[in-house]
Amino acid sequence: MAASAGTAHIPEDEEHNLGPTARVARQVIPRPTSSVEGEPAPWAHLPAELVRSIDVARVRRAVESRQEDAGRRNREEWLSITRLPEPSAPAAVLVPVFEEGGEARVVLTRRAAHLRTHTGEVSFPGGRLDAGETPEEAALREAAEEVGMDRAIVELVGHLSPLSTFSSGTTITPVVGVLPARPALTPNPNEVEHVFDVTLAQLVAPGIFHEERWSVPARAEDAFPVWFFELEEDTIWGATARVLVELLRLVLEV
Fold first, then answer.
1. ∠ CA(211), CA(44), CA(241), 5° rounding?
2. DSSP E strands: which ranges in the chain?
């Protein structure tokens, strides 16, 4: 039986809409019947003062020092899902972070309801690389196309571990970009239904994160972790949750 996913309330001042306020029901998450509850959040043991407030300077330091982090390989192994299909195409996403009231906030989107795949899922702006593009170039282009982000205001500070998606076999490079202030964004209705942001501190608050262990026929030999962040009206999971978990582990040094 699938592990239950409790919903935690986010106060109104903890989530700011950057686009249309219309919302759809949460996406259907295809839990296998064999899913079970997983481990506690990696940051569950940290004292409250370390997770109560996370500013952009802390995020910047963590991402910029990633290449020199002696624990990076272990973290990548912890994040990985092995025996995935051969990647069909490289892709990139932009992880946009800005600060407001001393809190680092990350920009997220909800995919449009009419799309053929991943309908209604929460994601970062991104997509497949065009011929000759770098992950950084693709991430900025996609952010401009999907939410109207001005690429000139984005300061790229580094990238996180590439990851592969089980459904499409695409290899995704997350590119972290710092914004000088809250951006003025306009969702492209062909791709994005809603764009919003949430503080990193909120993502590590008690009751928001949980892990499940899934077993599927393609990987019958062992169960693998799937991570979820339960917001008031959205569930962040899949590749987007994996990106956020690595970012948060870097920032919190866990």
1. 40
2. 15-17, 36-37, 90-100, 103-111, 122-123, 126-128, 155-159, 163-164, 171-178, 192-199, 209-214, 224-230, 235-236
Question: Domain locations in the chain?
Answer: 13-21+34-252
CA dist., res. 88 & res. 93, Å (int): 16
Residue 81 has pLDDT above 80, yes or no: no
Residue 78 pLDDT more than 70? no
Residue 173: beta bridge partners? 92
How is residue 93 written in tokens?
């996403």
- Residue 162, class by beta-carbon neighbours within 10 Å (0-12 exposed, 13-18 middle, 19+ buried)? middle
d(CA 48, CA 57): 19
Backbone angles phi, psi at 22, to 5 degrees: -60, 140
SS3 152: helix
Which 3 state secondary structure label does DSSP give 168?
coil
pTM: 0.82
- Topology of the domain covering 13-21+34-252: Nucleoside Triphosphate Pyrophosphohydrolase (3.90.79)
pLDDT (average), residues 28-48: 86
The residue with tokens 């892990």 is 211
Q: How far is CA 179 from CA 97, 98, 154, 242, 246, in A?
A: 6, 5, 5, 22, 20
List the structure tokens of 74. 């272990």
The predicted-structure confidence for 181-237, as pLDDT tens digits, reads as follows 999 999 998 878 889 999 999 999 999 999 998 877 665 557 788 999 999 888 999
Q: How many residues are given for the chain?
A: 254
